[in-house]
UniProtKB/TrEMBL annotation:
It comes from Shewanella fidelis. SUPFAM superfamilies: Acyl-CoA N-acyltransferases (Nat), Glutathione synthetase ATP-binding domain-like, NAD(P)-binding Rossmann-fold domains, Succinyl-CoA synthetase domains. InterPro entries: Acyl-CoA_Synth/Transferase (IPR051538), Acyl_CoA_acyltransferase (IPR016181), ATP_grasp_subdomain_1 (IPR013815), CoA-bd (IPR003781), GNAT_dom (IPR000182), NAD(P)-bd_dom_sf (IPR036291), Succ_CoA_lig_flav_dom (IPR032875), Succinyl-CoA_synth-like (IPR016102). This is Acetate--CoA ligase family protein. One of its GO terms (molecular function) is ATP binding. The lineage of its organism: Bacteria, Pseudomonadati, Pseudomonadota, Gammaproteobacteria, Alteromonadales.
Length: 898
């Protein structure tokens, strides 16, 4: 995926319009009008054999007659002519084309090849990229480029909008122009058969002209690339996404719209959250979010103050805030005293601050000034309802002036709600022109504020240091995998509790004692062995739910009860289905359920994002979108904790306050164990643990079903998020005989990595950071330790001390460009371990990794003072050059030539 080609898309110097037309309402005519009216400074070259000129611009009869190679071509012709046009453009040297036509996938050549496939083949052969097909086009206001079929142009601004829907594009554009909100880029992806969300996110995440990104998504195809790009971009700027297909019917409609894969909406929600994006549910929320992004700064905290000239709107705002999980900040005594001197005696005396229905512009301005003086607030919401005083616009002007002149204007976000229509419209327009976010209702304003809060919380979650899992996960999965592979070889498609105990217990998951009996007599023998009371279950591949045939009997306390229950269950199955196959009977030791709580955990295989972990309450039937919270593996303790909190917050599970009920730490351990199991064992297609008995710190899996995947795939294609690459761990010996572990870095390494960084001498820090460098902050360290293994790598060297504690001795890291062309590395080693061969071990490991990753080039820079680093690189095969002007040493290795 070439970011270099995208530079041409976003910075074209010349444009060709294939199929330009003088006929009104034709796509080629609308395109020409938009291009000519946008102010684009480069050549605009219409291509058509029908006219000598189009809208007064000299036309060219064919592509070959163009006087220069266009950076961007816009194809406005019918679908049937697109493949040939793309082939000619690509041969001519054009690198990017926008295809407007739809239906390419539904039309075929005489040889049965779809026009879409043929178009893609021609483009790929010559390294050409395509936006579309079925694209509305794109608008780059800063270049004056309106290469779209939109009914209006976009204003320049700092927000990028990318959409799979042309109708959503025009709707958002119309609304934004009315509000005076501008865009850095406005892009219609169409069917996204080539250029897709991930590449655009990579570009826009680095684009200095873009402060925020909005996405409208019908479907995602490249799950891992999408999440990696979104995660990288969201570290630097907010990404808001609106996703269609929240209902089953809507999902089907979305598939018809773009032809993409359909996935479960709850899994999409989990993916967005995991990548640090913020989802909005509808266009109203989207518009509110755009308003906020266009005119606000990132929140420094969540403490909100509210000013209102009426009690009702203030209460509505407060309700929305509290129901949304927000925080209302109490007034400090100083602010209370100052407001008390300003406001009438009837004022509310608390936050929300009701300043009275007779408030004029002066009272509003002074109250806001007092609130902005407070160090206890991060945001202020100013509400106004129509008043007999009729000073709506005057109050708005006073508010805008107060904000502009206040020294805390860059620290405190101010949002406004002017309710009403006739009397409030001009005031809201004034706020928009002044760059102050404004909303039509109190609820809308608070909802927009909570978007900012949710984004801040998502970013903080991504930076939390996870607790190390307090159990031993197996060093390898050979035992579990061999059992699964043997079951598949035997033609099994489903493993139940008695068949999966060894697999689950290898990962620290507790199951009840279970036996498999072939008949009633053997069931009695196993029941005696287990000790009463026991549970008895019939085993038949022809039964979907045992409860349908009363195939589960609990609390059996004697041999006679077991024998009678066994025979009765077998008879019921046969009576309902004479051809049913009875495999046997499952005997389980009854778990102690008094004071415990039952929940349900499952792993489903989503067609878009692959394995997803579900958490909810027990039951034979559930719909994940409604009954469970969802998370994507891999999980650590922090992500598992967030999952449990979400389940409690949304009441997908209820804390029933039982004596031996839910224990947060125990639940998180179990979820993390399941995540390890799913990552290590691709033979597992689905997993259903129902019920799971939570008894404080003791969690027991009572009933287990493992669905098997007869053709397991590797994790690169199966998992949406790259897991920790355990296979890259290795041990090595230093010159002094010490054994060290070389392994990829983990989020849990942050405290030890900070200690390592702080242990570097002043000289080593100077060499590592090319100058004097203060100590790392938590936020900076989180970026270094919570890496995306799909697009960056950091290896650390550690040793276990006499006290059993692990210490970091050295680290090397490299990030790679999205094209997998070049990785740039940096390295540091503890001062007291230099000269022991540790740097050589780390650099050799990194070289091997990027060779295996098919990266083309590995580079690095170091200072003139760090000649040892340069000598090491030269011994390992790097080309070393010296930049005398910058006083830097450049190290370069062509990995394909090694």
């Amino acid at each position: 995926m070439s970011q270099r080609t995208l530079h041409t898309l976003f910075k074209p110097t010349s444009v060709a319009i294939i199929g330009a037309s003088n006929r009104p309402k034709r796509a080629g005519n609308v395109l020409m009008k938009n291009l000519l009216s946008g102010g684009f400074s480069g050549p605009i070259m219409p291509v058509t054999p029908k006219y000598e000129a189009v809208l007064g611009v000299l036309a060219y009869p064919n592509i070959e007659s163009l006087p220069l190679k266009p950076d961007l071509a816009i194809v406005c012709t019918a679908a049937r002519s697109v493949p040939a046009i793309i082939e000619t453009l690509a041969q001519f040297g054009c690198k990017v084309a926008i295809v407007m036509a739809s239906g390419l996938a539904d039309e075929f050549t005489d040889d049965g090849v779809s026009l879409l496939s043929l178009t893609q083949q021609h483009a790929q052969r010559y390294g050409m990229r395509i936006l579309g097909p079925n694209s509305l086009g794109m608008i780059l206001p800063n270049l004056g480029l309106n290469a779209s079929l939109a009914h209006t142009a976009a204003l320049p601004g700092k927000i990028a909008f990318v959409s799979q829907s042309a109708a959503i594009c025009t709707t958002v554009l119309d609304w934004a122009n009315n509000k005076g909100i501008g865009f850095s880029s406005f892009i219609s992806l169409g069917d996204a058969n080539d250029i897709n969300f991930d590449e655009l996110l990579d570009y826009l995440g680095r684009d200095s002209k873009t402060d925020a990104i909005l996405l409208y998504i019908d479907s995602v195809n490249e799950k891992r690339h999408f999440l990696s790009a979104a995660r990288a971009a969201s570290r630097n700027k907010p990404i808001l996404v609106i996703k269609s297909g929240r209902s089953i019917e809507g999902t089907g409609a979305a598939k018809l719209h773009t032809g993409g894969l359909t996935g479960n909406d709850a899994v999409y929600e989990a993916a967005f959250r995991r990548a640090g994006m913020l989802r909005v549910n509808d266009l109203i929320e989207l518009f509110a979010a755009v308003e906020t992004l266009a005119h606000s700064r990132p929140l420094q905290g969540e403490r909100l103050g509210i000013i209102s000239n009426g009690g009702g709107p203030a209460v509505l705002a407060l309700d929305e805030l509290m129901l949304g999980g927000g925080k209302l900040q109490p007034l400090s005594s100083e602010i209370y005293q100052r407001l008390n001197q300003l406001l009438p005696k009837s004022w509310s005396g608390q936050n929300p601050v009701d300043i009275g229905g007779d408030s004029d512009y002066s009272r509003y301005a002074k109250a806001l000034e007092i609130m902005m003086d407070s160090d206890d607030l991060d945001a202020i919401l100013v509400l106004h309802s129509p008043s007999a005083l009729g000073e709506s616009v005057e109050i708005a002007e006073a508010i805008a002036t107060t904000i502009a002149n206040h020294p805390n204007r860059h620290k405190i976000n101010v949002l406004t709600n002017w309710s009403g229509e006739d009397s409030a419209y001009e005031a809201r327009k004034h706020f928009s022109k002044s760059g102050i976010p404004t909303y039509r209702t109190p609820e809308g304003a608070v909802g927009a504020f909570m978007h900012m809060v949710e984004y801040r919380r998502n970013q903080k979650l991504l930076q939390e240091v996870p607790q190390s899992i307090p159990v031993n996960i197996p060093a390898d999965s050979h035992t579990a995998r061999s059992k699964l592979q043997q079951a598949i070889a035997n033609g099994k498609t489903l493993l139940e509790t008695h068949e999966s105990r060894g697999i689950l217990e290898a990962y620290g998951l507790n199951t009840v004692d279970t036996w498999f009996a072939t008949d009633a007599e053997q069931a009695v023998d196993f029941a005696k062995q287990a000790g009463y009371p026991i549970a008895l279950k019939v085993q038949s591949p022809d039964i979907h739910h045992k409860s349908d045939v009363h195939g589960v009997m609990l609390n059996l306390t004697s041999d006679g009860e077991v024998k009678q229950a066994a025979n009765a269950m077998i008879e019921r199955v046969i009576s309902l289905n004479p051809d049913a196959k009875i495999e046997g009977l499952i005997v389980q030791k009854m778990a102690l359920t008094a004071g415990a709580q039952e929940i349900r955990v499952a792993v489903a295989n989503d067609p878009v994002f692959g394995p997803a972990i579900l958490l909810g309450e027990g039951g034979s039937e559930w719909e994940p979108t409604k009954d469970a919270v969802v998370a994507l593996p891999p999980l650590n303790m922090t992500l598992a904790r967030y999952m449990v909190i979400q389940a409690l917050k949304t009441q997908k599970i209820r804390d029933r306050r039982l004596p031996r009920g839910l224990n947060m730490n125990a639940l998180c351990v179990m979820l993390t164990q399941i995540s390890h199991l799913i990552i290590d064992c691709p033979e597992i297609a689905t997993l259903d643990l129902n019920p799971v008995l939570c008894a404080g710190e003791e969690i027991t899996l009572l009933d287990v079903n493992i669905g098997l995947n007869p053709e397991p795939s590797d994790n690169a294609s199966r998992l949406a998020i790259s897991p920790y690459p355990k296979e890259l761990e290795e041990t090595a010996l230093l010159k002094n005989g010490k054994q060290v572990m070389l392994r990829p870095i983990l989020p849990e390494d942050e405290p030890k990595h900070l200690a390592f960084d702080n242990s570097l001498s002043d000289e080593d820090r100077y060499k590592r950071y090319f100058g004097v460098r203060s100590k790392m902050t938590h936020e900076e360290m989180a970026v270094l330790t919570q890496i995306d293994y799909a697009r960056e790598m950091a290896f650390i060297a550690t040793e276990i001390g006499d006290d059993g504690e692990e210490t970091t001795l050295g680290a090397i890291r490299a990030s790679i460009d999205p094209d997998n062309t070049e990785a740039e590395f940096a390295m540091a080693v503890r001062s007291n371990f230099q000269g022991q061969g540790l740097g050589k071990l780390l650099l050799e490991k990194l070289v091997r990794y990027y060779k295996n990753n098919d990266t083309l080039v590995l580079t690095g820079f170091t200072m003139f003072e760090n000649r040892n680093m340069a000598s090491l690189a030269k011994r390992l095969g790097f080309t070393v050059t010296f930049d005398m002007e910058e006083r830097l040493i450049h190290m370069h290795m062509d990995l394909k030539a090694q």
